[in-house]
Amino acid sequence: MAIPASELIINPNGTIYHLNLLPEHISDKIITVGDPERVAKVSKYFDAIEVEVVKREFVTHTGYYKGKRLTVISTGMGTDNIDILMNELDALVNIDFITREPNQEKISLKIVRVGTSGSLQEDVPLGSHLVSQYAVGLDTLMEFYPLEQSDTELQIATALQQELGIGFRPYLVNGSISLLTDIGAGMILGNTLTCPGFYAPQGRVLRGGLRNAELLKKYNAFRAGDFRFTNFEMETAGYYSMGRLLGHEVLSVNAIVANRIEHTFAANADEVIDDLILKVLERI
Questions:
Q1: Which of 6, 7, 112, 120 is at 20 to 30 A from 102, Cα to Cα?
Q2: What's the CA gap between 195 and 171, in Å, rounded?
Q3: Does residue 70 have a pLDDT over 90?
């Protein structure tokens, strides 16, 4: 059945609505970053750039790195943007824009998020690189999708809901096992908490205050068997859940630039991020 124009929105130039991209504009290997200015910090290492597209916070460069055709695209912050990104990337490779029908043969993209993150444990130091094995979403994005989860995932999510005293159950999803093996070698293996904001949801207090003054301590101390949180940020759970729903291989790697338990921030954050970018370019 054809997807209506109100659901699959195609621009007059034939591109997908928000990303402003055509199917031929992207590779099947995609690096994503949050900050639009960080796209150029990745593509500066390309041997050649063949596509440069900008729309809203979505900046896309596609080119070649040592013979590999790669796309790097910015997302902005938050899982609401990841919802847009993942659906529209999937549409570019798995929906025929002429007939508006899904293709019979599905393409699975390889998507690697290169981001910054704050540590939740003393043994996850500043300047380290961490690969997210699991991510837990404290946002409500998956309240609207039929995400399948294992019994273990549901048990951990339920335990966290009870510990935090929130009115909905978080969602817990693993990243790509194959990408973790290929790209995450030598990195700290962690479990990432995805928060729906940068300030109060991450236990920061400016003038707005906190409903739960012990929130950061609860994140740090939470255990479900040997499961604990190593770091937190604002996108990874959205990536992992949408990857599971749509059949794409997704991995999140993190430059640890802050340690919230020790109240420290990396003086060489740009260098830590740049080293992580080069690792991913070599391994993807």
A1: 112
A2: 12
A3: yes
